[in-house]
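Ticket closed. Logging final result for Lipopolysaccharide biosynthesis protein.
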Amino acid sequence: MASSNLTDTNNPSPLVAARSLPPDQISPKDVLYRISQIKYVFLRNWKLLVILTALGAGIGFIYDALHKTRTTYTGSIMFNLGGGSSGNGFGELGQLAGAFGLSSGAPDANIFVGDNFLIYAQSRPVVEKTLMKHDTIHGKDTLLVNYYIRHSGIRDREWEENDSLRAFYFKKEKKPEEYTKMEQLAMADIYARIKGEIAIKQPERKSSFMELSCFMEDELLTATFLSRHLKTIEEDYQKKQTKKTREMYDMLNTRADSLARILSGTENQLAQFMDQNQQVVVAQARIKENKLTRNSTFLTTLYYQALQQADNMRLSLIRETPLFTIIEPVTLPLFREVLGTQGLQIGTALSFILAIIIIFIRETYRSIMKEE
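Final structure:
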């Protein structure tokens, strides 16, 4: 047939049909062509790219020059908690494991168990107790919170535009419920800053050691705060962990004191009665003397029992008191780091990206105008 003799001049093989690419696809040849055109785009716009990038770098450089660098000092204390009897059948090892989340049992609601301890050590009440402590700095008795205000840099940053806070300081050691409104605002800002400066972690997962670290803008402030904060944690921890035992110990002491007063009164009555009735042989008088003697003997027995119980409770209190052992104390000099602003790098990067966007828009507009 005539139609079978027809051949496609563009397709030499009659078995392979000519296929055009879909409109939404490009061939490798087009890709290579477009890549080769990039150098022409660069040649046409290199001045614009250089000028915009240099302008952004200049703005970043000026920003760096106008803003001060920040020097920080980083220190840490490694410690171990132990020495207390938990009373749960596992002894010291059980308490130590529970305090740092190493036990395999169910989560405990105790604030000193697992991650609760890490949160507790950085909590605002504990930090405030540390700041409200007195310490000897440069040979002077100083309230730590006032030393922090003067040397932490908070006045030059957070309080730069607030004249009232820049001139503020705490007049004396106070409890949170005694703060004035200004003191509450100041302490809130101080804690917000310190919260980002301190950290407590477990260096090794299988170890019971803990590491308390912080970085501040004054070397002595960093070292003093670390030592004082660990001492505050220890005191507060021991106070809360032995609360019930101390209450029982105080109750027994109060009971012993009360018995001592009653016993003393009874003995005085007995002595006075015996002095006044030495030659009396009346039976009624003898009965009263025997009664006073019996009361005195009974009270003496109760008094010595109370003393013994209080002494046993005191020994129990000593056994239950957790012990903080410092493994690695904070040592001077601390690690010093100068933190500068990143204006030059950021300005250069942003201006380069902006230049690429402008060149892309410019080249797109140029190609549209050519087609028209």
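The CA atoms of residues 163 and 321 lie 46 Å apart. No further action required.
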